Structure formats: structure tokens, C-alpha cells
């Protein structure tokens, strides 16, 4: 199960995997996409837009974990790792903005709630400051339901853990509901708050998950 940097050709399978992996998730499923059963294509559009938005950001690192060989190789899981807080980041000219056509409207999404996640970051961004301003953050991790439990998640996590160990930086994650133990096992044992924190946070009281976890046991 090799992992490699994602390419533009991977964006579609990555969108499909995220749509499936988070189909019944309380946030990406129920809250943001209440009309997903009537308009399933909208959920894939959501993920495609989200991936595209970060695709050319030099701080974002998209990786895929694959199964099969040669022509039959398929993406089984993917992640977006973000190296936060670097000041000297310059745009890589090779990663120039792709000319993507506009996406059709996402009819699966609730028109207001689709922005809740993005808006919630304003209320919690202070968590990534001071000694934790420079860090690695696991922004997204999605394993195809057909390949969960095969080690893809752990392996994609290890890539970022290795980077953070080399740089001696903390690692953060906002954990989806029911996934805390997966991250705890990997050493994310310091909880510093929740994605619902802060007065006026649009996510407050609407989800059960969203704990902000830190891993620092690799720091010497
Ligand atoms: C959660 C998720 C990323 C785990 O990835 P995975 O590839 O299925 O997990 P792995 O096979 O790498 O498992 C690694 C270890 O974590 C454990 N584990 C996996 N999911 C777990 C869970 N939900 N709770 C507790 N432990 C879990 C495994 O048993 C395994 O333990 P081991 O090392 O002792 O054998 C994956 O199931 C997924 O994509 N879920 C839906 C989307 C999602 O919620 N993503 C996370 C958003 S924060």
C-alpha cells in the first residue's frame, strides 16, 4: 500500500472517497448536506471544490494511499497535511494554478450551513499560536469504506508524523465524531479545545465531535 503525492488526476477519486467516507458524518453529511440522498452528486462537488481551493497552497500537502499495481492502481485513501505557520513560504511555480472550469451548484448542501465550517475557524484560530503557531496539521483524512481497517489511515498519518519529528514541531487534528480513539492511539493525547468553541461560533451545539487534539510525544 504505497503512498505518494496526489496528482490532478487523483482529485476525482479523492472527491468520491471523501463523499463516501463522510456520507453519514454528523458534520459533512447530516449538517452540511441534508439533501445528499436526493442529490448525491452535490457531495462530490463539495469535496472537489474543497480540494481545489487548497491545491495550490504551498503549505498544503495532498497524499494518496493506493492499492493495485500499474494500470489497475486505484486510490484507497487520501490526506491533506498542512504545514502551518511558515513565514518564508513562496509559491512553487511548478504548482501553478490550474485553469479549472467552474463547478455546477451543489444541490445537496444546505445553503447557509455549507459555510459553517469555514466560519468556525475564526473562533478557534488562536489555538495555532505561540509555541503551536509552527506545526503540522492534519486537515483531512479519508479512507474509502471499502479499504478501512487496512492500515491506510495509519500510514498517511505516519508521513506527517515523520515530517513533524524531523522539524520537531507539534501536530494537530480536529477529530470527527467517533474518531478520537484512532488519533489517541497515534499519540494525539493533548486536548486543547473544540471546533465549537467561542461565542458566536456557528458550529456551537450542532455537532458532538470536533475536539482539537495535539501530539507532542515526538518532541525531544
Ligand atoms: C478513521 C479513519 C481515517 C481510520 O483509517 P483506517 O485506514 O480505517 O485505519 P487503520 O487501518 O490505519 O487503523 C489504524 C489503527 O486505528 C484503529 N482504528 C481505526 N479506526 C478507529 C476508530 N474509529 N476508533 C478507534 N480505533 C480505530 C485500528 O484498529 C488500528 O489499530 P492498530 O494499529 O492497533 O491495529 C477511517 O476509518 C475513515 O476514513 N473514516 C471516515 C472518515 C473520517 O472520519 N475521517 C477522520 C476525520 S477526523
From TrEMBL:
<feature type="domain" description="N-acetyltransferase">
    <location>
        <begin position="1"/>
        <end position="218"/>
    </location>
</feature>
<dbReference type="GO" id="GO:0016747">
    <property type="term" value="F:acyltransferase activity, transferring groups other than amino-acyl groups"/>
</dbReference>
<dbReference type="Pfam" id="PF13508">
    <property type="entry name" value="Acetyltransf_7"/>
</dbReference>
<protein>
    <recommendedName>
        <fullName>N-acetyltransferase domain-containing protein</fullName>
    </recommendedName>
</protein>
<dbReference type="InterPro" id="IPR000182">
    <property type="entry name" value="GNAT_dom"/>
</dbReference>
<dbReference type="InterPro" id="IPR016181">
    <property type="entry name" value="Acyl_CoA_acyltransferase"/>
</dbReference>
<dbReference type="InterPro" id="IPR052523">
    <property type="entry name" value="Trichothecene_AcTrans"/>
</dbReference>
Amino acid at each position: 500500500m504505497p503512498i505518494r503525492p496526489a496528482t490532478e488526476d487523483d482529485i476525482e477519486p479523492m472527491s468520491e472517497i471523501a463523499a463516501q467516507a463522510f456520507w453519514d458524518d454528523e458534520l459533512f453529511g447530516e449538517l452540511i448536506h441534508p439533501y445528499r440522498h436526493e442529490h448525491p452528486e452535490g457531495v462530490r462537488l463539495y469535496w472537489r471544490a474543497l480540494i481545489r481551493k487548497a491545491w495550490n497552497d504551498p503549505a498544503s500537502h495532498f497524499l494518496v494511499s493506493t492499492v493495485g499495481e500499474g494500470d489497475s492502481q486505484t486510490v484507497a485513501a487520501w490526506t491533506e497535511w498542512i504545514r502551518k505557520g511558515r513565514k518564508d513560504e513562496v509559491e512553487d511555480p511548478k504548482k501553478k494554478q490550474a485553469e479549472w472550469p467552474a463547478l455546477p451548484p451543489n444541490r445537496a448542501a444546505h445553503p447557509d450551513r455549507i459555510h459553517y465550517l469555514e466560519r468556525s475557524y475564526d473562533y478557534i484560530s488562536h489555538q495555532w499560536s505561540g509555541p503551536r503557531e509552527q506545526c503540522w496539521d492534519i486537515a483531512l483524512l479519508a479512507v474509502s469504506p471499502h479499504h478501512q481497517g487496512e492500515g491506510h489511515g495509519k500510514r498517511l498519518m505516519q508521513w506527517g508524523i515523520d515530517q513533524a519529528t524531523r522539524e520537531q514541531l507539534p501536530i494537530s487534528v480536529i477529530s470527527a465524531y467517533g474518531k478520537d480513539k484512532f488519533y489517541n492511539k497515534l499519540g494525539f493525547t493533548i486536548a486543547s479545545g473544540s471546533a465549537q468553541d467561542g461565542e458566536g461560533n456557528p458550529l456551537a451545539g450542532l455537532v458532538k465531535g470536533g475536539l482539537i487534539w495535539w501530539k507532542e510525544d515526538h518532541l525531544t
